[in-house]
Amino acid sequence: MAQEKFDAIVVGAGPAGSAAAYTMAKAGLSVVLLERGEFPGAKNLFGGVLYRKQLEEILPDKWKKAPVERRVVEQRIWLMGEESAVTLGHRNEAYKEPVNCWTALRVKFDQWFADQAVEAGALPIYSTVATELITEGDRVIGVRTDREDGDLYADAVIIADGVNSLLGKSLGIHREWKPDEVSLAVKEVIALPREKIEDRFNLEKDEGVTIEFFGKTSLGMAGMGFLYTNKDTLSLGIGVMVNHLKKKKIKPYEILDHVKKHPMIRRLIEGGEVKEYSGHLIPEGGWNSVPPLSGNGWCIVGDAAQLVNFVHREGSNLAMTSGRYAGEAVIEAKKRGDFSQETLSLYDEKIHQSFIRKDLVKYKGMHEFLKEEDPDLLFNRLPQAANQALYELFLVDGVPKGEKQKKMLNYLKEAGGGAWGLAKLGIKGWRAMNG
Amino acid sequence: MSEMKIADRLFTIRYKVDEQSHLIIKDQEVCLRCETKECTHFCPADVYEWTGEMTTVAFENCIECGTCRIGCPDYNIYWVYPKGGYGITYKYG
Fold this sequence. Notes:
By secondary structure, chain A is α/β, with parallel strands linked by helices. Chain A contains 15 helices and 17 strands. Chain A has helices at residues 15-26, 52-58, 106-119, 166-170, 194-201, 242-248, 252-261, 263-269, 316-336, 341-353, 355-362, 366-372, 375-394, 401-416, 418-433, and strands spanning 5-11, 31-34, 49-51, 70-80, 85-91, 101-103, 123-125, 130-136, 139-145, 151-159, 182-191, 207-215, 223-229, 233-241, 273-283, 294-295, 298-300. In chain A, strands 3, 4, 5, 6, 11, 12, 13, 14 and 15 form a nine-stranded mixed beta sheet that branches. In chain A, strands 1, 2, 7, 8, 9, 10, 16 and 17 form an eight-stranded mixed beta sheet that branches. In chain A, a hairpin with a 3-residue loop joins strand 13 (223-229) and strand 14. Chain A is globular, with a radius of gyration of 23 Å. The model of chain A has no long low-confidence stretch (mean pLDDT 97). Chain B is of the alpha+beta class. Chain B has one domain (6-89): Alpha-Beta Plaits (2-Layer Sandwich). Helix content of chain B is 22%, strand content 19%. Chain B is built from four helices and six strands; from the N terminus they run αββααββαββ. In chain B, the strands form three sheets. A two-stranded antiparallel ribbon of chain B has the order 1-6. In chain B, strands 2-5 form a two-stranded antiparallel ribbon. In chain B, a hairpin with a 4-residue loop joins strand 3 and strand 4. At the A-B interface, helix 3, strand 11, helix 6, helix 7 and strand 15 of A face helix 1, helix 4 and strand 6 of B.
């Protein structure tokens, strides 16, 4: 591989990297797609929701062939009490056509997505770790790999090496993430017969449902759980902020054990067989943690650039779109014969004009809010109080409704530090969600 | 569902184990002085254990999440990816 020079090297064959590689290869550029796993997807993990819109923008003809699990027709949100839940959700036939999102598993999807890039002409180099970037002055000119004579040279390097992004760090684009800028999610894939899944979740054929839950299930830490229906498996997991996990001194899989015993969850996974345990970090710093996105000879995309909207659990779609934009910027750079920051900052411009920046800026206060507020208040006491209040509302026990209403408000006030405390919290939360 | 032991959980993942560890404690003296020994709790694969004298590293269990590199209060863990093709391979992901 020595001394060969390509137009572009993409480090990492996840959704961001494969989108970039596909975009550039299709335009006729010479592209290397580097992946440290035995195959794309081998190391990759997400909760399990894949969005149609951003995939279709990249593969307008082929997106229908993507290996997915179920079309999501219903999304449920559960606020968990000790042995109860306040539920909210929306089911709509309109989510089927055009499909809004699917449940999916990354080993299958990432292989297929990377294959599209390879079919378009990208050169796959798998089982190979990019150990460092090769630089000349302030310009990135290639990638050092752990293969013998494994230096690869290119006019542009697209850094798509995921949340840990050792390459991004080595370049000094971003410092190490702080524990509050990442969540650790642990997940299990649990096998159940299709009919059982469809009966338990009220589904027909390829219909799927997503459930996000928060509250008592994260044991007083800021976190969110998820339960998604695949064809003949369920994806169950929970992520918690690492700064809170550090203090709690609990093992991540014990949080999952706790979740599995909750009456809302237990009956849905009953009788299932755990096929796979997994864990991954989620970048959750929000817009304020996003590093510079491009420089001389490089762009950084996807999780490596903290491009995750954790409030809406969107990540793979931001990754794909950022990969596409970076690819488009490199195509333009090739046309101009200029791979300096001046041209590659076209990528920054595209991000800035897109939903990616707009959504991340809207929620840019959320990270600070979750970091500063007492997690026990937000994820333990308030959810429990909301559950007690709703319990009271629906309980017919001879207590007059007026008294009940007072009791309900009292639960919330007591949990939230009085009416004033609750109001302040509400205002802070509102601001955090609205940029 | 009954609770699964971590060993049974890790058994669901395919590993190709390198002879050399990709995780290195930079300075055991730092661990000795560390009051919280957080790594023995927050690691999702029970890689780190405190023997009373030193931190042991079961790198062959590692699921490559990176939490320890970021979570160690003294940034005392040198963390790189396993060599190309080594480490975990998920079946589902």
